[in-house]
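Hi R.,

As promised on Friday, here is the backbone we talked about, encoded as structure tokens. Could you run it through your design pipeline when you get a chance and send me back a sequence?
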């Protein structure tokens, strides 16, 4: 990917990076480990975001 990105693409990438965070610790503790990962988690290698 180019070093200089257009602003709309950069905004989408930033939003995707925020969404892909793990589930909070308190959620894991409250559910006693049944929920470990966020439903919106995404790996940068396996799954692409739309440009």
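Update: got your reply. Pasting your designed sequence below so it's all in one thread:
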């Amino acid at each position: 990917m180019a070093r200089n990105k257009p602003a709309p693409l950069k905004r989408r990438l930033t939003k995707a990076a925020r969404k892909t965070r793990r589930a909070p610790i308190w959620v894991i503790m409250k559910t006693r480990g049944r929920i470990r990962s966020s439903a919106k988690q995404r790996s940068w290698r396996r799954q692409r975001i739309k440009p």
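One thing I noticed while checking it: The chain has a mean pLDDT of 89.

Thanks again,
M.
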